[in-house]
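We modelled the chain as a single entity of 146 amino acids. Its sequence is:
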Amino acid sequence: MKGLQPPTATLYDIVVRGDAADIRLAPTAYAAYVAARAGTDKISMQRKAHLERYFREFCEHNPHRLTDEKFKKEQTFATAHGKVAVWAFKAWQWRLYGSILTVAGKRTFVGTRVDDSKKQNKANKTLLKLAADDIARLIEFQSKGK
């Protein structure tokens, strides 16, 4: 349809704001993140602490100093709007998939998909592709380099 604007990540919730970057989450990813932080069992508490530390590191330093065990470029996908690199924050059987974009003039990790039932170290290929598709639809991705 002509005239429809692509969605924008500026409407996504900012979960961490830093000097070097922000982290924004799409609505479903945000809901999964809130649920992950709400648990009071040992693994949920460890996950919460690790995610907070990883997110803060990403947002306060450019380049970040996170290892591949914490934040990793998983795969690049060809889409109708260009190649999308999908990254993952990883903590205790929980993965947040998204990309690094410029949103409102600032370097931003935009998370769109969550795998909250990781039983192995391999990334979920279906969720990776869905995250790439989510990112490719965003105005911030489509307008990069223009």
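As a brief sanity check on the tokenised model: The chain has a mean pLDDT of 92. Helices lie at 27-38, 42-60, 125-137, 139-142.
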